[in-house]
């Protein structure tokens, strides 16, 4: 069994298909042939038995119709009377009371069996025995012809019947072998034809593995079946993989660039301190302050990169009190940025609980508020508005800052993207804040939109599923 399983596991899909179809068709054919063979065998055997009964009935009627006028001598002198009743493949014997043969009609069997004991007074007895190694029907009864009393015995060999059954069995075996070969061939051809798109897809996947995403998808298959669905999923998957691969490359490139700058600044100031800064307190103080600032920026960048890299599953059992957390974070931001003015507007006293964790919503709001403060030219004025929209909680954060150009709005959620890179670096931004906001909103099945006009401020609108 293990060898068979090993053999099948090493076969191609076409080979498995052809072998399976051949086995299924052959087994089905064998079952049907077996049923037919048994039915034909029973039917023909019953016909042979009925032939014996008809002959015995005809002989009984013949002897009874002749009454006392028919003698054994008459039958011996004119066997034609009996030949017209007895089939040529049957042998009939008439025996006296001592079971000595007096008359024989036909000679289909050389060795005759003895007449059984205990025959019925009326009618006859039929049995099936082996005579000369051939299945044979035997029939015997008592007989009275004029003054003669004795026995009549009929022997019916099943030679013709057995020959016919052997012929039928041979024909079925030949047809079964032909069906096995034909089904295997047809199954292989069908498998080759039907699985050709899969084979082409395998070749394309191999080409992609060798050449990368530069290899184009050439396979065309328009049928709306499982293979068509598989090709659609493959194309979608390849598109997502390519986009993910490109995003990963871009992320690595941007991350290495962003980390290189503070490292170079720290390295430069450490070299400056090593050369002459140790003897100049002013240079030493400036270099240490600058190095600490760059290290702080680098630490923040690494933390935000790790936050983006995490892929924890969202917990739909979490729910946050948006109003309470918003009020807490407003107080927190006012302490850090005393010159900022933050207003909160609430539509009603409804419950503002959303399906999101407290920490995730806190990160979202902090990033939006810090961006609003960072990109304000004058004293920051920020307005937060909470409302219920259908089954969602809506949070709007509006500022009166520098705004975002229309061509930049589609990319502000990309990692490391900055509208004004020089200003962002001076303000301490990493270009990851809005990426984290977008990631967290999507993680909890929410949506985020931005409306902005250059020099007139921006409004970020977030919708989160409300607690039911």
Automatic annotation (TrEMBL):
CDD domains associated with the record: HisKA
Membrane topology, from the record: Multi-pass membrane protein
Example GO molecular function: ATP binding
EC number per UniProt: 2.7.13.3
Annotated coiled-coil segments of the chain: 295-326
Pfam family, one: ArlS_N
Annotated keywords: ATP-binding, Cell membrane, Coiled coil, Kinase, Membrane, Nucleotide-binding, Phosphoprotein, Transferase, Transmembrane, Transmembrane helix, Two-component regulatory system
Location relative to the cell: Cell membrane
Keyword Cell cycle: no
Domain Histidine kinase intervals: 254-468
Chief location of this protein within or outside the cell: membrane
Family matches, as InterPro entries: ArlS_N, HAMP_dom, HATPase_C_sf, HATPase_dom, His_kinase_dom, HisK_dim/P_dom, HisK_dim/P_sf, HssS/ArlS-like
SUPFAM superfamilies tied to this protein: ATPase domain of HSP90 chaperone/DNA topoisomerase II/histidine kinase, Homodimeric domain of signal transducing histidine kinase
Catalysed transformations (reactions): ATP + protein L-histidine = ADP + protein N-phospho-L-histidine
Transmembrane segments: 17-40, 167-191
Positions of the HAMP domain: 192-246
GO CC terms: plasma membrane
Name of the protein in its database record: Signal transduction histidine-protein kinase ArlS
